[in-house]
Amino acid sequence: MLPSARGAGSESLALGWLVLATAAVAASSLFAILIVFARVPGLGALFPGTEFYRVALTLHVNLSQWVWFMAFAGVLWSLGLVRVPGRWHWFALALAAAGALLMALSPAFGAIRPLMANYLPVLDSPWFFAGLGAYGLAVLLMAARVMHDGAEHRRTASADSLSDVMRLGLKLAASVVLAALLVFVVTAVLLPTELFGLARFESLFWGAGHIWQFSLTTLMLLAWLGLTSARIPLPSAARLKFLLAIGAAPGLIAPLLLLLDPVSPAYFKAFTSLMQWASWQVPLVCAVWLMLAHWRAGIVPATGFSLSLILLVAGIALGAMIDGQTTLVTAHYHGTIGAVTLAFMGLTHGVLACLGCGSPARRAVEWQLRLYGNGILLMMFGLAGAGLMGAPRKIAGNVGIEFSVETLSRIVMGLGGTLATAGILYFLVLVLRQLWPAVSLRMARHG
């Protein structure tokens, strides 16, 4: 269940953000194919070196995380919080589309150098930075506007308690995004001018990136509720609101860590500890509640929810095994990030129905979600196996053909990555089949 759109204007705005989100996933999947093949023994030797791999990885991460996640947040914010879209809403969408396009095309505009910073690697290119800045400003504008729009709902609270829960969650997610952007800006001001290159971007994104994760967690919980609410009785609205508030609270409090020097070990350690001890408890409590409700009702959980939960648990377990900068880190965050993506994919079909686009056949949706979810699991196992053998992250590694545990792990990773990419492409086919008629109709009306 989703909060109801307020009218044709909010539906059109949500549709625009959904088109952008879908385009970002489509572009990121192309780079994902290159990344997977560049890591596979034998095939990787055919690619033109580590710089090619890093450029593809940088664009894949930015499009599949920053652009996709925030564009999908734009969809949910538009449906749940926007009454009548104004010019700032539409300007934010147009700016986001322009920024995403500029980032994706930046390698065509001249020599670039990838800087593999945590959370968001970047390309040392003025075109890429212009696109990244434009997209960040668009997210800032949209989050700020929906916080204002969301305040209007207090005067006309819905009698539907779950809708009220969803709106609170959307406002909390927007608040955490604003907190992350605040930390980014303040960090940029506080960093010493002599700090440049990779070290500067590591410090710049470290705090903001950790805070941003709490927004994604909140949105994932809302997706879980949307995927399960029609199937089982949920906990009371008061409990759900409390749970969402507790889950988002660390992200809202975290800007206080700016009292530490943003280049100090204490600053990096503080945000690492925040993720270790405050990010996973609420999702697991919510998951236990939902799984128990399914068990009591004798109902099999929705695939989008169950596979998302499996990826999250696997990601948390692998995160506890991390010891150094190996592909075990990559396995961990593919689990946690994959859990969010899978939940969003599952919810997308409900969004399509909410927008009057219809939904794909249930069997096709099940196949698509399993293809992606099981592919990510295989890829995680492959990355974890290579990481336990000491394979470093962020580089293609040894792509020669030789028998070893690491080589077998890379082959499993390649197989899983291929299945996951096929799942993404199938997702695009299913979504575009529903989106195209609706987009064409709206274009004809405005033409």
The number of helical segments is 13
- The helix-strand sequence is HHHEEHHHHHHHHHH
**Mind summarizing the main beta sheet?**
2 strands, antiparallel
How many strands in all? 2
- Fraction of residues in β-strands: under 5%
As laid out across the biggest beta sheet, the strand order is 1-2
Helix content: over 70%
Looking at the structure, what is the overall shape? globular
Low-confidence stretches: none
Distance between the termini: 33 Å
Structure description:
The chain has 447 residues and is an all-alpha fold. The protein has a domain at 301-447. The chain contains 13 helices and two strands; from the N terminus they run αααββαααααααααα. The protein has helices at 8-39, 50-81, 87-105, 126-152, 161-190, 198-228, 237-253, 265-278, 281-297, 303-319, 327-354, 362-388, 405-446; strands at residues 114-115, 122-123. Strand 1 (114-115) and strand 2 form a beta hairpin. Helix 1 (8-39) packs antiparallel against helix 2 (50-81), helix 4 (126-152) packs antiparallel against helix 5 (161-190) and helix 6 runs antiparallel to helix 7. The radius of gyration is 21 Å and the shape is globular.
Structure described in brief:
With about 450 residues, the protein is mainly alpha-helical.
Q: Would you spell out the secondary-structure blueprint of this structure?
A:
Elements: H1 8-39, H2 50-81, H3 87-105, E1 114-115, E2 122-123, H4 126-152, H5 161-190, H6 198-228, H7 237-253, H8 265-278, H9 281-297, H10 303-319, H11 327-354, H12 362-388, H13 405-446
Antiparallel strand pairs: 1-2
